[in-house]
């Protein structure tokens, strides 16, 4: 009597053709066992792994501890963000942008709001502009602090991670005071910001930002920058030469660490960055150590920018006066018929934007976060394409990881400082 | 009643039984305290609270953890080699405990007073590598395997430095017996014809006579116990949990226990070899000939060991981790020649002085 397989069971041994088909669809990637010809170990790293920072999966072909081939497999956090934007409309999409680079949600908010505004040429009031700039830079500090902390943790220095988190906690507090949410802040709106800063907020941020460079020097740099083990682990690891960085279209700190001076804040200034005094740190070798140094220096420059911005935040409204775009003041909605209609239309139909299309990118902590927005006169975008810097950064992984040691994979991943929410969208 | 007491204190078997019970129970207790200490010191270093809820200062946290381990489901994965999988955790605990049996906690207070003391200690601590190799191999998991292979190479490499560094002590002491090594560190060293007294007896300790050897021994001890910066076998950010990835419940707890007992064992060996063991500038001679004296000596010994253990913890929460090739480089190309050179220098000086 032949054994009958239980109902719904799948044959265990797949034919080579079936495996090839699975590989072609990106499922198998040959992640089982050992390569029969070379004897190389095929190691599946992720999607749940302590140092893939989210749900990145990498299939590594290893000769001992050396990487022969690395095949990244992305998409585990795909939520269809671009389609959601088409279905939900402009303002309702902003909370979703919190979930792109969720380490600097406020910077994403600023980016998407500015992209939408740029299509029809809305100019936000000066106060909103300064506040947006300050918050975007706070977001950069937020993201870089976590990037450094995780970097240190991935090469084994666990304590720095906690020091970085202590600093981030302050930024969370500021965000909570500003928006009511600590993490997913959803602060901007088309045509301005959702809330003005509470009393004392500016002084609090100023105190924090004044002290931060000193604390970073004391707690992070002193522990790592000249630490022999740390330097040995990072120097010459994950090298991305200038031409490779450019050919892969990398942006942000990763590109600058490779020696290319490219920062959208300088090249295509927005939010009035051209009025601020700051430097763009550039690396030399494009290795993990340079990326670490660039991020440290960028944090100090961000502090400098925030201090300048806080000193010149003007008084005034934080949203545009055109109430076909921004919500009217609640008190006037309760007393004024016209404003009531505006409120109703903005909430139900969305802001009224003329048809047009435009690409707009801002310098996010991880690189250029770009939005290509096509408006069609309704309250919803016809198309909203997102260029996530993490996606582009990760595209160079197979090139960078080739020939590295297994431990270098972790150091390289950490130094690229990507976030899967933004990569998979 | 007197007969029983006599048997317990005078008889060979009886007194051995007391020591076994004492050391065998105190060591795991010490580990429980050590785990708590590690977490509190880590928290202190990292500007946070650490476990402070269970019992006074959170001291009972380790016992709560133990209960948690005991109550967890003991999973036996289907893909493992069962015999080896079950033996490995036991092997992780037993060798370091045996090493503790050889350590003299006080004058005439070692469970096994072996003439070849240190050799036996190294022999047993060497067996510890089987736990890791078997655990990783039997798990039939690639992360565990990489961890096990790393660990085997690392332990074997650094064992050589460990042994050679300790050899310097024995050249100076002229004996392998741990008790004699301790006594020799308190027997009145003379500098310029003057015998040392009081606190200056510190210069009689081997850490003064063998500074380089002590440093190398400590580095190798870090590597032997898989502690940061040498925690590659279980490098969390790379290998999930390394060789014990596939172990759960008490089997994992045994690996955990073994690791900490190994730290206690290595620290007590360091104390014995370099820090004068149970002696403390003559204080150890108080209450001459009574049980109180033995207790005092044990206390001194534990205090010194705790200082060494604190160093272990302190280093762990400060520095990053080596990469595999850098680890091998350090072991074979730097430490090994340094140890040999130091050993040769020691031998020359000793021969010259004689």
Number of helices of chain A: 18
Order of secondary-structure elements of chain B: HHHHHHHEEHHHHHH
Low-confidence stretches of chain A: 1-31
Terminus-to-terminus distance of chain B: 53 Å
**What is the percentage of strand-forming residues of chain B?**
under 5%
**Rg of chain B to the nearest angstrom?**
21 Å
Oligomer: heterodimer
Low-confidence stretches of chain B: none
User: In what range is the share of β-strand residues of chain A?
Assistant: 5-15%
Structural class of chain A: mainly alpha
Query: What's the number of domains of chain B?
Result: 1
Radius of gyration of chain A: 24 Å
> What percent of the residues of chain A sit in helical stretches (DSSP H or I)?
40-55%
Textual characterization of the structure:
The complex is a heterodimer of chains A (425) and B (354). Chain A is mainly α and 425 residues long. Chain A has two domains: 10-73, no CATH class; 82-319 and 354-387, Orthogonal Bundle (Cytochrome-c3 Hydrogenase, chain B). Chain A has helices spanning 16-24, 81-88, 90-97, 105-120, 126-154, 158-179, 201-224, 228-234, 242-247, 252-257, 264-267, 288-311, 330-335, 337-348, 389-394, 397-401, 406-416, 420-424; strands at 41-45, 57-63, 66-73, 188-189, 192-193, 356-364, 367-375, 381-387. In chain A, strand 4 and strand 5 form a beta hairpin. The longest helix of chain A has 29 residues, at 126-154. Chain A is globular and about 75 Å long. Chain B is globular. Chain B has one domain. Chain B starts with a helix and ends with a helix. Helices cover 68% and strands 1% of the residues of chain B. In chain B, a hairpin with a 2-residue loop joins strand 1 and strand 2. With 354 residues, chain B is an all-alpha fold. The longest helix of chain B has 34 residues, at 12-45. At the A-B interface, strand 1, helix 5, helix 6, helix 8 and helix 17 of A face helix 6, helix 10 and helix 13 of B.
């Amino acid at each position: 009597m032949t054994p009958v397989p239980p109902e719904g069971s799948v044959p265990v041994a797949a034919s080579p053709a079936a495996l090839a088909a699975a590989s072609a669809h990106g499922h198998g990637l040959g992640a089982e066992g050992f390569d029969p010809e070379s004897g190389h170990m095929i190691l599946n790293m992720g999607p749940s792994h302590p140092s893939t920072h989210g749900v990145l999966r990498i299939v590594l072909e290893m000769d001992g501890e050396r990487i022969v081939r690395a095949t990244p497999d992305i998409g585990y956090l795909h939520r269809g963000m671009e389609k959601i934007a088409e279905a939900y409309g402009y303002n309702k999409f902003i909370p979703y942008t919190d979930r792109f680079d969720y380490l600097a949600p406020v910077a994403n908010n600023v980016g998407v709001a500015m992209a939408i505004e740029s299509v029809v040429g809305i100019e936000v009031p000066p106060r909103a502009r300064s506040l947006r700039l300050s918050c975007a830079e706070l977001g950069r500090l937020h993201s870089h602090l976590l990037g450094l902390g995780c970097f240190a943790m991935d090469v084994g220095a666990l304590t720095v991670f906690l020091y970085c988190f202590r600093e981030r906690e302050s930024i969370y507090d500021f965000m909570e005071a500003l928006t009511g949410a600590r993490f997913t802040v959803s602060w901007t709106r088309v045509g301005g910001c959702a809330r003005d800063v509470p009393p004392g907020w500016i002084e609090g941020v100023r105190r924090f930002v004044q002290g931060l460079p000193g604390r970073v020097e004391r707690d992070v740099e002193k522990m790592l920058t000249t630490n022999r083990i740390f330097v040995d682990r990072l120097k010459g690891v994950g090298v991305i030469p200038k031409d490779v960085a450019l050919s892969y279209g990398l942006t942000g700190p990763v590109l600058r660490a490779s020696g290319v001076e490219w920062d959208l804040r300088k090249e295509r200034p927005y939010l009035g960055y051209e009025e601020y005094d700051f430097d763009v740190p550039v690396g030399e070798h494009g290795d993990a150590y340079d990326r670490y140094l660039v991020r440290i220096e960028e944090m100090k420059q961000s502090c400098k920018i925030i201090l300048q911005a806080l000193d010149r935040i003007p008084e005034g409204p934080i949203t545009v006066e055109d109430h076909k775009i921004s919500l009217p003041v609640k008190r006037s909605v309760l007393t004024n018929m016209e404003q009531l209609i505006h409120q109703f239309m903005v909430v139900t139909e969305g802001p009224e934007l003329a048809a047009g299309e435009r690409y707009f990118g801002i310098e996010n902590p991880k690189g250029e976060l770009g939005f290509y927005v096509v408006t069609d006169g309704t309250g919803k975008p016809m198309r909203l394409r997102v260029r996530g810097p993490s996606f582009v950064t990760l595209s160079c992984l197979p090139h960078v990881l080739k020939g590295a040691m297994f431990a270098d994979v972790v150091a390289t991943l950490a130094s690229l400082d990507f976030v899967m929410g933004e990569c998979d969208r | 009643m007197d007969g029983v007491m006599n048997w317990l204190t005078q008889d060979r078997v009886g007194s051995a039984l007391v020591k076994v019970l004492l050391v065998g129970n105190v060591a795991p207790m010490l580990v429980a305290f050590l785990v708590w200490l590690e977490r509190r010191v880590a928290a202190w270093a990292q500007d946070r609270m650490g476990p402070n809820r269970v019992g006074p200062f959170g001291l009972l946290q380790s016992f709560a953890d133990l209960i948690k381990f005991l109550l967890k489901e003991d999973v036996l994965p289907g893909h493992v080699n069962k015999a080896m999988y079950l033996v490995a955790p036991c092997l992780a605990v037993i060798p370091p405990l045996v090493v503790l049996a050889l350590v003299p906690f006080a004058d005439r207070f070692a469970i096994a007073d072996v003439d070849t003391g240190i050799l036996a200690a190294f022999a047993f601590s060497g067996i510890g590598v089987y736990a890791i190799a078997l655990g990783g191999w039997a798990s039939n998991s690639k992360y565990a395997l990489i961890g096990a292979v790393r660990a085997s190479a690392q332990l074997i490499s650094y064992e050589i430095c460990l042994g050679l560094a300790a050899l310097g002590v024995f050249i100076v002491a002229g004996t392998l017996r741990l008790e004699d090594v301790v006594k020799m560190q308190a027997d009145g060293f003379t500098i310029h014809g003057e015998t040392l007294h009081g606190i200056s007896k510190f210069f009689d300790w081997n850490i003064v006579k063998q500074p380089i050897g002590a440093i190398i021994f400590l580095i190798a001890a870090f590597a032997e116990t898989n502690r940061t910066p040498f925690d590659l076998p279980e490098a969390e950010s790379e290998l999930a949990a390394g060789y014990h990835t596939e172990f759960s419940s008490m089997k994992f707890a045994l690996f955990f226990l073994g690791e900490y007992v190994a730290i206690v064992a290595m620290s007590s060996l360091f104390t014995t070899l370099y820090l004068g063991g149970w002696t403390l500038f003559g204080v150890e001679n108080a209450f001459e000939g009574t049980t109180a004296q033995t207790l005092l000596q044990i206390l001194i010994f534990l205090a010194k060991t705790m200082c060494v253990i604190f160093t272990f913890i302190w280093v762990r929460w400060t520095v990053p981790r080596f990469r595999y090739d850098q680890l091998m480089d350090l072991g074979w190309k730097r430490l090994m020649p340094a140890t040999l050179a130091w050993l040769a220098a020691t031998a020359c000086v000793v021969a010259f002085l004689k």
